[in-house]
């Protein structure tokens, strides 16, 4: 409890990280509140095409007459939703398997290591593309597919941490007192890894935002009529030089999200690290 | 020395003995997945007036009328003896995939080498001049590049190059550099008059995609190198070397630098797959006929053997990249070789 407050205080002193928190909070509030009163629907293509930004369409309209503001709000919602889902699913899976492998060693460790090797070798982009075709292109499927590749990273990091923690006296004494694997992992190992896990989960959100955008950009991510930030850029990038507003707004939001998350991750790392 | 090399060889062989079975399992899993993706001939079958008999013959030729498991072993046997099967358009997969691979691989290797050299250099400078201007600039640049998806960097570069070409034209340099100098599309038709001309054209065609692919790796390498360099600069043996009066440059390069390279070797091997997918996406921006366009064609057509050829070739590249990183690891850190 005392440590939590200490970490929080150190985090608050990290100026860039706090700026990241504020920027992200404003963005999340905006994409939640704007659709409540904004008159244009993101799927409504009945507007005149290629309207430059004006009072009615603050960010203009695209080639098929979609309101760009509504598009970007929806795209940001979905990109963030996918990224957070990926981070939660992948971190949970990775931490569970990684800590088990690091603590149990032996066969469990070998099995988990081979599994991570397998996922490293298989080209993500091809398999993700096939999976998007096999299943539907809904945001949840895309999130699950991305998670399937993402868990290896947190698994590898957690495994290393668990291995070194398992050597420590407090774990040995817990084992001598008769604690089982599940109890040692949840009560003794995980609380000592919160810093690493939190940093990794934050950075995973940032990377998942970009990964989803890349997948959408080759036309293999979220499928129409729904949209994500990557999808919006993909739909409009041919207009890049003539009508830059169609590119720079979704691009700007994407960079803002990713920068904010990277700063928060950095702040968290500093805040937790100072302990040792 | 001899024993040292023997240890390294044994170490590499052990890594290889682990990688090859993993790659085999990966091909089997992918084969099942590709087979589940759909019937590659569905579109031809549903076409009005389609000759069903001819399609049945084609399906038989592609062995699509067999079960997945026997089909896998037949494919694997053929694959290992150099016959990678044919695409549903009946082109040999081997030719199609390897020629596309040449394009992509050239891009990736060039970008990775450049990213490693510049990233390591910038990382060292940032660490040595910690919290000075150079460090802040390097940090800001790395953060910005990290936050951008690779295709956005490519798009911005492409737009910038269009303007740069206009300037080259305005300045009357087109005779020297060609018009347009920096190509924003595929490099296939590189007609040249002499070696100098070829070099200019080659640079013009490869410049933008290489920069785009390089950007993200560069950010990673420079951050990693900075962090590990700072760590080694704070170790006892570096302090001892300094106390002995060895010149600062010698301390930095002989004592700290070599050890600080080890984490970068790790990043290289973990990163390689990501860089490959980045290259695949970048090629789409510049309309190159590389692995990116083969992948999109193959996925859209559910083309089984074309997809398998693609997956195996990229997978094998990642395995080899990991081996290279392992060898660097062994060279940099003798402790790893033992045990």
Description:
- The complex is a heterodimer of chains A (276) and B (339).
- Chain A is an all-alpha fold and 276 residues long.
- In chain A, 74% of the residues lie in helices and 0% in strands.
- Chain A is built from eleven helices and no strands.
- In chain A, helix 3 (68-104) runs parallel beside helix 6 (139-166) and helix 9 runs antiparallel to helix 11 (245-273).
- Chain A is elongated and about 75 Å long.
- The two termini of chain A are 17 Å apart.
- Chain B is mostly helical.
- Chain B has a single domain, classed as MetI-like fold (Orthogonal Bundle).
- Helices cover 78% and strands 0% of the residues of chain B.
- Chain B is built from 15 helices and no strands.
- Chain B has helices at 2-36, 42-46, 52-61, 68-80, 93-128, 133-146, 150-170, 174-177, 195-233, 236-243, 248-260, 262-285, 291-301, 304-332, 334-337.
- In chain B, helix 1 runs antiparallel to helix 14.
- Chain B starts with a helix and ends with a helix.
- The model of chain B has no long low-confidence stretch (mean pLDDT 82).
- The interface between A and B is large, with 37 and 48 residues.
- Chain B: The chain crosses the membrane at residues 12-37, 100-125, 137-157, 199-221, 260-281, 307-332.
- Chain B: InterPro entries: BPD_transp_1_N, MetI-like, MetI-like_sf.
- Chain B: Belongs to the binding-protein-dependent transport system permease family.
Overall pLDDT confidence of chain B = 82
Distance between the termini of chain B: 17 Å
- Which residues of chain A sit in consecutive blocks of at least 5 with pLDDT less than 50? none
Helix % of chain A is: over 70%
Largest protein interface, residues of each chain: A-B, 37 and 48 residues
- Provide the CATH top-level class of chain B: Mainly Alpha
User: What is the distance, rounded to the nearest whole angstrom, between the alpha carbons of the first and last residues of chain A?
Assistant: 17 Å
Q: CATH superfamily of chain B, please?
A: MetI-like
Strand content of chain A: under 5%
Task: Categorize the overall geometry of chain B.
Answer: globular
CATH architecture of chain B: Orthogonal Bundle
- Number of contiguous helices of chain A: 11
Oligomer state equals: heterodimer
Tell me the number of strands of chain B: 0
Report the structural category of chain A. mainly alpha
């Amino acid at each position: 409890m005392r440590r939590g407050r200490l970490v929080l205080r150190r985090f608050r002193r990290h100026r860039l990280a706090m700026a990241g928190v504020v920027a992200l909070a404003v963005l999340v509030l905006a994409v939640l509140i704007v659709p409540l009163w904004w008159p244009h629907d993101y799927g409504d293509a009945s507007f005149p095409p290629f309207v430059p930004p004006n009072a009615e369409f603050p960010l203009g309209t695209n080639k098929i007459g979609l309101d760009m503001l509504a598009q970007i709000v929806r795209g940001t919602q979905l990109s963030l939703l996918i990224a957070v889902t990926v981070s939660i699913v992948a971190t949970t899976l990775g931490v569970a398997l990684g800590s088990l492998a690091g603590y149990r060693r032996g066969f469990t460790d070998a099995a988990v290591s081979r599994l991570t090797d397998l996922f490293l070798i298989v080209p993500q982009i091809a398999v993700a593309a096939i999976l998007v075709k096999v299943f539907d292109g809904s945001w949840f499927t895309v999130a699950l597919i991305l998670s399937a590749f993402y868990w290896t990273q947190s698994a590898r990091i957690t495994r290393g941490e668990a291995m070194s923690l398992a050597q420590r006296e407090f774990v040995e004494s817990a084992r001598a007192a008769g604690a089982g694997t599940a109890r040692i992992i949840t009560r003794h190992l995980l609380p000592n890894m919160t810093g690493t896990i939190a940093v990794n989960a934050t950075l995973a959100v940032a990377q998942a935002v970009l990964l989803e955008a890349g997948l959408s950009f080759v036309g293999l991510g979220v499928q129409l009529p729904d949209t994500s930030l990557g999808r919006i850029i993909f739909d409009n990038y041919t207009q890049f030089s003539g009508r830059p507003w169609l590119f720079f707004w979704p691009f700007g939001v994407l960079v803002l999200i990713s920068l904010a998350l990277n700063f928060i991750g950095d702040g968290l790392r500093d805040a937790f690290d100072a302990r040792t | 020395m001899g024993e040292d090399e023997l240890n390294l060889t044994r170490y590499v062989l052990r890594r290889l003995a682990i990688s090859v079975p993993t790659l085999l399992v990966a091909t089997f899993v992918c084969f099942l997945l590709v087979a589940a993706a759909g019937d590659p001939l569905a579109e031809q079958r549903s076409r009005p007036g389609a000759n069903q008999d001819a399609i049945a013959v084609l399906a038989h030729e592609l062995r699509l009328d067999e079960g997945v498991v026997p089909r896998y072993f037949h494919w694997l046997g053929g694959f290992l003896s150099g016959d990678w099967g044919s695409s549903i358009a009946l082109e040999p997969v081997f030719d199609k995939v390897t020629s596309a691979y040449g394009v992509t691989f050239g891009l990736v290797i060039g970008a990775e080498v450049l990213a490693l050299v510049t990233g390591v250099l910038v990382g060292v400078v940032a660490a040595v001049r910690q919290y000075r201007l150079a460090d802040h600039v390097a940090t800001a640049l790395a953060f910005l590049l990290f936050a951008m998806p690779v295709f956005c960097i490519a798009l911005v570069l492409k737009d910038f190059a269009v303007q740069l070409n206009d300037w080259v034209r305005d300045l009357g340099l087109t005779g020297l550099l060609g018009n347009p100098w920096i190509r924003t599309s595929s490099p296939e038709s590189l007609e040249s008059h002499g070696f100098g001309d070829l070099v200019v054209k080659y640079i013009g065609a490869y410049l933008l995609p290489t920069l785009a692919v390089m950007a993200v790796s560069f950010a990673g390498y420079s951050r990693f190198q900075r962090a590990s360099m700072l760590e080694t600069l704070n170790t006892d043996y570096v302090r001892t070397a300094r106390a002995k009066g060895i010149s600062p440059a010698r301390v930095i390069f002989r004592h700290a630098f070599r050890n600080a390279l080890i984490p970068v070797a790790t990043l290289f091997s973990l990163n390689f797959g990501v860089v490959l997918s980045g290259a695949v996406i970048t090629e789409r921006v510049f309309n190159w006929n590389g692995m990116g366009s083969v992948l999109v064609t193959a996925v859209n057509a559910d083309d089984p053997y074309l997809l398998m050829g693609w997956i195996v070739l990229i997978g094998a590249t990642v395995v080899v990249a990991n081996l290279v990183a392992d060898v660097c690891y062994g060279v940099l850190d003798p402790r790893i070789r033992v045990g």
